[in-house]
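Dear support,

I submitted the protein below through the web form. The confirmation email said the job was done, but the results page showed an empty box. After a refresh the structure appeared. I'm attaching both so you can tell me whether what I see now is the final result or a partial one.
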Amino acid sequence: MAPIRVGTASWTDETLLASGWYPKEVAKDPEGRLRYYAQHFDTVEVDSTFYALPRPEVVAKWAERTPEGFTFHVKAFSAFTGHGLEAERLPRDLRALLPRQEGHLSQKEIPEEVVEEAWGRFLLALEPLRQAGKLGYLHFGLPPWVEPRPRSFRYLERLAERAQGYVVAVEFRNPKWYTAWGFVKRELKRLGLVHVSVDAPPHPEAPPRVLEPTHPVAVLRCHGRNAETWKGPHRKPYERFNWRYSEEELLDLAQAAKTLAERAEVVYVIFNNNYGTQGVEAGLGLKRILDPV
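What the results page shows now:
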């Protein structure tokens, strides 16, 4: 069975920092926090890169502050997934190319030259992780409004071309992708893209849990099972994923991870229920179940 590696979708979520999980001596120290996290987990997903382009000097510090074998998975910038962007989060020179320099811009409002330049800077910034052997997958979470239509498959084609040489993981938030799963699965395999299996609430607008890898790398992202908060509206992203997994639910996730491990070469289980200590507690609980001492 393939190795199963467990982590969370952030080590810097504001509610985690306020929770007391980090010891006082490192709570306000970025280097100390990451080193402390890496004492408990050997993998993590970077959330901040969805909201703003990463800076090479910051990424280099991530590589320096973690032990050999630690793996970072990086969320794609929002303008790469169809979510648009916040103008204030762009570097000044790119911001100057926008039709508006403030507020949220939809995907249609973003000039193609801005997206192209952002791609180059995004990949360049990840080079310190890549050179250190610590770069895992790039996570592309498609918005709920993206359905399995011809232009969506053209997007996947372009994504595979643009990110050639990287491990690219795709997560579908619209359940319609799974009504056409046979075709979708074949396309993901053909393009060399990782299918992200999800653990989500029983909600008509949430994707089902489909434990079928399309790549040697398998990913299970755990969003919690809070059906009441799934739809929103939300003031903060973590409100949708406010859920504390029970022991019974963690046992279920352990079995799901093992199912993936029978069909892949490595499995990453990422907890995205980042409210307070919920994610780190679930991750540590799953690790205990998978590798009891």
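Response: this is the final, complete result; the empty box was a page-load delay. The mean pLDDT is 96.
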